Amino acid sequence: MKIKSLFAITLGLALVLTACSNDQGSGNQSQDQEAPAQENVETTETSSLAPEEGAEEKAPITSPLEEDKDPTSKEANLTPATLYFPSEDYIITGAIESPYIEKPIQINLEEEDPAVLIIQALKDPQAYEAESTGLENFTILSAKTEEGQATVDFSSQGLNGGSLEEDILLSSLVKSLLSLDSVHEVLILVDSQEAETLMGHISIDKPFTAGDFQ
Known about the structure:
- The chain has 214 residues and is α+β, with helices and mostly antiparallel strands.
- The chain has helices at residues 2-49, 72-75, 88-93, 114-122, 163-178, and strands spanning 78-86, 100-108, 140-146, 149-154, 185-190.
């Protein structure tokens, strides 16, 4: 009986030792399997931040405001001119020492005929902090520039005034139009016809040139 008991104890111990060795081996194997998995995760995270091989780099998006603009496209159609307004002394006393106030401007040739733009500007003296030429008090039927001549056609309706008023209106208008490089003479019409005078004081039967007004 003792021999059977001893054999049974020995067999039990052998089974216990075998089981322990199996558990230890499986534990080591599971650790070995988990380690590569962790390395794979780190590799995946790193590769997601790096650019792919052969991938094209995208150009930065540029705002339209940052693009270079060529100012010459707008400036090419601008032409200089000078507006002539009567001085306060000339209006009050008729003094000829300083009869005009000059206002340099730039005219866009794409907007309208330059003669029309000159007249529009002279009709708005407040915009230039200047005295009135009287031009805003009369009706102009048309104005144009062609082949070196500016032509201004007045309506005869309400066309009257004194000699100083006529001189201020005509001299300011003619000198302003002649300031254009493309204009060499100014023709004044009344109701689309040639006339002797505008208001009865100054002859307009031929075109004005630079020497006709001081």
